[in-house]
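Q: I'm writing up a methods section and want to include an example of the input and output format. Could you take the sequence below and give the corresponding predicted structure tokens, formatted cleanly so I can copy it straight into the document?
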Amino acid sequence: FNAGQRPALNVGLSVSRVGSAAQTKAMKKVAGRLRLELAQYRELAAFAQFGTSELDQATRAQLGRGQRITEVLKQGQYKPMPVEQQVIILYAAINGYLDDIPVNQAGPFETNLQRFMMANHPEIGKAIATEKDISAGTEEALKKALTEFKQSFKG
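A: Here is the clean output for your methods example:
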């Protein structure tokens, strides 16, 4: 919280583990990898404070992904987001769809992705909301939609 992350998030606290019992299968699918990615990012970020000039490319990529994930987790006050939209943006973040987007463009990417999905592929969000899971067919449609969106996103 004091680091500017709102809502405050600590993947190691028991609240996050206990809270998973109330999550849908779709959220569990993305949240498991999300927790792992964030934990690894925080560990690397602490190490990288001592200098990033000698870090290899894979480590830099992991730090970049962690920064982007942290950005998409930021949420404005009084701006709730439906679970299906959360699942879509988190899926995009943990699967590398934001990796080549500048960190300062992660917020606009998220906003534009939500608009794009509601306007062009509302069936994907509806499927996630009704099934409460990401079926193989829904995942394929989501991958295609994310690729389509990436081609149109200018940042």
